Amino acid sequence: MSQPRSPEAPSPCTRPPATPAATAHKELRDDAFWQQLPAYRHLSAQEFHDHRFQSRNCVTNVAKLREVVGPLVPESFYQDVGQGVLRSTMSLRLSPYILSLIDWKSPAEDPLRLQFLPLASRWMPDHPELALDSLHEQKHSPVPGLTHRYADRALFLALDTCPVYCRFCTRSYAVGLDTLQVEKLHFGASSERWEQAFSYIASRPELEDIVVSGGDVYNLRPEQLEHIGNTLLDLEHIRRLRFATKGPAVMPQKLVGDQEWVGAFLRVVERSRQLHKAVALHTHFNHPNEITAITRQGLDFLAEQGVVVRNQCVLQRGVNDRAETMQLLVKRLSFLNVQPYYVFVHDMVKGVEELRTTLQQAMDLEKQVRGTTAGFHVPTFVLDTKGGGGKRDVHSYEYYDREEGIAVFTSPTVMPGTQFLYFDPVHTLSSPVQRRWAEEGERAAMIRTALDRAASRPRRN
User: Fold this and answer.
1) Dist CA 296 CA 166 (whole Å)
2) Taking the CB of the first residue and of the last residue of the chain, which one, N or C, has fewer CB atoms within 10 A?
3) Domain map of the chain by residue range?
């Protein structure tokens, strides 16, 4: 008589040893990287990482750039930048921190140079359907500097300056100094204008969530930051505040050394807790090279204070459109307790067509990033619809013609019954289609066809 077989022990899981790439997100630069630049070669870490040095020594023109970088690049590079600035919608302003992280042996391809220093040699013509305020923020502005598009939340532009200026700024119609390309609609840090915004917010009980942005709240004085935060928290119906700043990515030294500014922000955070409300910091890292040991020091301090920090990234060709780059960014942010919240498909912004990707590239990249880490730390890839329909998941289009580069979205909760368009860069399309885009009549016909086809299909809400 056969004996019953005992169950076999399960085989142990045998995963291969972790490769160096698996932990690369934990490796942050802690060297004297600034000393590659002639102007900073003599500076100690204490001197370079003084937030006042960073703020006072920003490069704002080509002459200053030449003084800092010197012979590391040829004169032709400075001429290229100078011509690029003339075509840019944004004035030049780079912190010593960002300048020092650029690879000056190969600046043309460097992902940080791409974001902040324009080169005329890389310029591409704007898309023919481009508009300066492509998101129609002004159209949804009941008072100056306040955009009320979504029912329960609003965008409050507290000021119109930033610690640095990004070439790709979607708010180039208002932020920074006037340029040869754009006479700005300025929103200065004016208490009189703020009072108009506060009065409007107070009159709208459906509002619960306010994004305080600009410009950049890093440039608010501590008392201004605290005044705005407390005034909004005093409104019973306001439950959430989001303070938006690129500062941690371009000038992290302020989080470490500016005790007055950080103290003002933390007092607003603490008061929100006492009121059972929520205040978060929303920041803007686009590439893992922007994150160094000094960044970690500043973000660790915010973590110690229990501050919620989220990141909103912009997808840019040559910057973060490769899967391994975006995966590393997501992991590095998560390692520093920053939630990777959004990745935005690049808005249709004047003067930076070279940086835009196709919608298909965004969808492909989202698939490759998902699974990199825990789901709550995987960013949502979104498109802020041209024309003011708000943010839509990149996969939620009603119709997408990849050959002609036209996508149609709807936004039922924001503007029901309206169709919104997004266009892939013309240079990514075939030569025959590019010729069609160059002819106004053909262009109009392609758009009408896309809208009609989208309208005839079942809704993908």
Assistant:
1) 22
2) N
3) 27-122, 146-395, 397-461
